[in-house]
Amino acid sequence: VLRDHTIAFQTRHARIAYLTPSEGASDLYLHDPETGATQRVTSEPYGVHDFAISPDGRRAVISVNRDDSGSRDLWLINLDGSGREQLLRCDEQVCQTAAWSADGTRLAFERRDLIQRAIGKLPGPARIWLLDVASKQAVQLYADSQKIGSLPMWSPVDNRLAFVDSSDSA
Q1: Does residue 152 have a cis peptide bond before it, meaning omega lies within 30 degrees of 0?
Q2: What is the rounded (10 degree) CA torsion for 103, 127, 150, 161?
Q3: Residue 141 and residue 137: Cα distance in Å, rounded?
Q4: Nearest residue to 109 (alpha-carbon basis) of 118, 97, 123, 119
Q5: Which of 83, 112, 142, 144 lies in disulfide reach of 78, CB 3.0 to 4.6 Å?
Q6: Residue 140 contacts by C-beta under 8 Å, 6 or more apart in sequence?
Q7: In this structure, are residues 129 and 109 in contact, taking their beta carbons and an 8 Å threshold?
Q8: What is the pLDDT of residues 56-100, one digit of tens each?
């Protein structure tokens, strides 16, 4: 750069989001380290498995245990606890590990079929799916249903998606 360039910005007030308790049905909480105040965001009878905070810091997508069947659905909630709405119902499946796109319009997530085993139903291999938040339409990342992948993560600046590809060990 040939001359000085200044960009002004303001950060949002810091908060810590976490799940508690570690055993049993967990819920999402926010803690303000400046004031010491803690706010319960969710109250799910079977618990929240995981969550992802939106890029604007106002909402979270939560992976919610529907009941004791093992199915896990994706829900959207404002961080003040209001506006809870179902994004995706995952019958006989586990939908989890959601990641927001940089612009906050899409989610990438793992979808796993529940498979009957000797000790009950357990999640099978993960496949990456994409969900449009506004339309709530979900599509599999790869047309090949045998292509497995997990732990999706969007680039913070564009539309690139990184994930673990178990099929290719990459």
Answers
A1: no
A2: -30
A3: 13
A4: 97
A5: 83
A6: 111, 127, 128, 129, 130
A7: yes
A8: 999 999 999 999 889 999 999 999 999 999 999 999 999 999 999
